[in-house]
Amino acid sequence: MSVDRRRLTADRRLPFAFGGHLFAPIAIYTIVLVAFFLRVYRLGDQNVWWDEGWSIWLSQKDFAWIAWRTAMDEHPPLHYWLLHFWNFVAGTNVFAGRFVSVAFGVLTIALIYRIGNLAKVLKPSQGWVVGMLAALFLATARFHIWWSQDIKNYTPSIFFAFVAVWFGIESWKLEVGNWRARPIWRPIIAYALCAALAMWTHYLAALVLIALNLYAVLVFVRAFYVSRFAHRAFPNLPFAIRNWLIANTLAAALFAPWMYLYLQNAASWSAAPVFDFVLFLQLVATVLPLGVTTNIENYTALTIGMTIIAGLGIFVNSQFAIRNSKPDRANTNSKLRITNHELLFALIVVIPPLLVYALSLTPVAFFAPKIQARYLLVLAPAYAMLLAFGVAFLSRFSRAFAIIAILFVLGANAFVLNDYYAERRLRDEYATLANTINAFARQGDLILLDTDQEWPTFLYYLRYPLDWLGVPNGKPMNASDADALVRRALNRNRAVWLVSNPDALVTDPQKLLQARLAHELPKQLERTIGDKRLVLHAPDTRDWVAIAPENFAPQYARVEKINDTLQLLGFDLPTREVNAGDTLRLVTYWRARLPAQVSVRVTGLVTTSLQMPSGEYLRYENDFAIPPNALGEFALMVNQLELARIHIEPRASATRVNNIAHPTNYRFGDSLHLAGYQLPITNYRAGDTMPITLFWRADQHIEKSYTAFVHLVGAQFNPKHSPSNPLWGQVDRVPSPPTNAWLPGEFVPDAYRIAIDADAPPGKYQIEIGLYDPATGARLPTDTGDAVVIAGIEITR
Prior knowledge:
42% of the residues lie in helices and 21% in strands. The protein has 22 helices and 25 strands. The strands form six sheets. Strands 4-3-5-7-6 form a five-stranded mixed beta sheet, with helices on both faces. Strands 10-16-15-12-13 form a five-stranded mixed beta sheet, with no helix packed on it. β8 (556-563) and β9 (566-572) form a beta hairpin. The longest helix is centred in the N-terminal third of the chain and has 29 residues, at 237-265.
């Protein structure tokens, strides 16, 4: 058997090309396994957010109700239907819900490899290498991993859209020279079905289909030109066009029923304020290769490098394809390339962002998407393919260049992934609060959310089936609204659990709702958990240790015999990772035949003891204040029984006092001081951003985490707020690290960026600083009131 040495030499320039027929299966299976591992790693180590809570809540309804509700929403129903079936198999916990996205994300990795085989870049034998590299880049891409670990409809819609791309290429591909009719109904039907499924999952999947069909039109026009003026026959051109028309007509017909229902019920969506186009392009250029959406200016070098690799491959390979699409009239056997897969994936990457931006400018429409980075996720497989094309081009000159490019892409992916996984940490946002209600709720109780901004997140943690009401988020509370809410709550219910979050301090600063409830029913429980507050208003007292059997549902069920009369039945532990200075909350459940005493401790740090009476189901909560200087792994123990291992992250290093530009000594409460600030400049224009760094100091350990505020106060009132509000810029947030993690005597820097209102009139403004309890809104007193003015700035025209 003869060997084409020139072809073998050219192929060897590509990494992994030698022995490709043996290496390819091993490589792609390994890549798929890596993709799966990266997507299940720390899958459950992230709190449920609003959209995830909504998805879980909606998926538990029946099919018809899901369809009716989503017809009034901005997403179609298929993903929620899939979750509805999945709930019966795996339950409604967050790990199971996210696993659906993981499965479709991993399937997309395998799919992009198969699509890459269709891209005959430079040499037909190089298709598998392009597919393998594209799969590798997508498997390790932070952007795709991020949304593969989220209960959203993005990865299913991406998978269906790119299956449609695969079958679309097969359905209307062109052939040169002799051609025989062959059955093509399978790819046509498959394309139509997958295109419809993609649209039934997410409307923005249409962007990929639009780019695909634009590419088909360009190919058909090019083929017509060549056959008409260059005398090269494409005998199946009419059939390819027919297939294209049939496939898209069938896809439209499959989607038409839902589109009709949606248009009958959809509300008008108002677009967000205009997004700066240059900033939008910077966001696209950063988020597609790196999956980074904040502080994108810090990733400029990586962004430029990734863009060069992707752009180099698409530009140079396209030029090569154009040269090869010019037929040699003297030689009818010369190669002719009409299809250009580099152009296809370039269109998928370029056209959709422009369409998203154009749609966002629509004043009022049935679908006007906001500028959200996640809407670009559908383009991630195409971008990975462009990176693979770039490596393929570099391999024409040097195998070393290609390997350097591969290592650069993988190194950039690993760099941003390290930060991504470090941020995936569970926090006790609603777990302890909701579990308190789960343990002590009774039939006839009602939950009143003040405000209802995070109701899907709260309902995820609430297991006890209680009715609930919500105070509309963002609507200022007045006496009549508070009276109406309380009357409605007590119309059918005897007791009310009031759950207040920090937004309630903004909408109801006078606490009208709390006062109205307290007027009707006495308080039986009041406690602060983080930045949230839980109050039970009920006519009679309740036992806060013994719980009813129907309320018994520990997070981790265990049956451990402590002694002959005492059993540990389980425990709740919202998080196993905390920062030094945080509060670690542990709830234990017991069965005691006789009164007993046990020791509960974090080994080497904190110890407490429980004195319990006899009872079948007893519940005890321990809140451990972790010392600010703690670091490392610690055992959580009950007597000699280890329940779990706790990881404590270190504190940030302290700052020396001689680094403070403007020293001060303002006192807050008994032990906190504002030791100084840094303000680079004092002259601004309306719409600018004012950077300021505060330096705090604590005389002793602070047990509570306070929220700091920086207010820009003007001489005139801001008409966008209440009639007597002079704020023209503000930031309220917990310092980093929080106040309960500060070491006595250290100086803690805390940087802020205050956006000055675009309508701020010229004049002088004061910078006002303060601290308050996020649960109650109570400010810490200072020597001059409840806030201090540290400096002034001037806003000019």
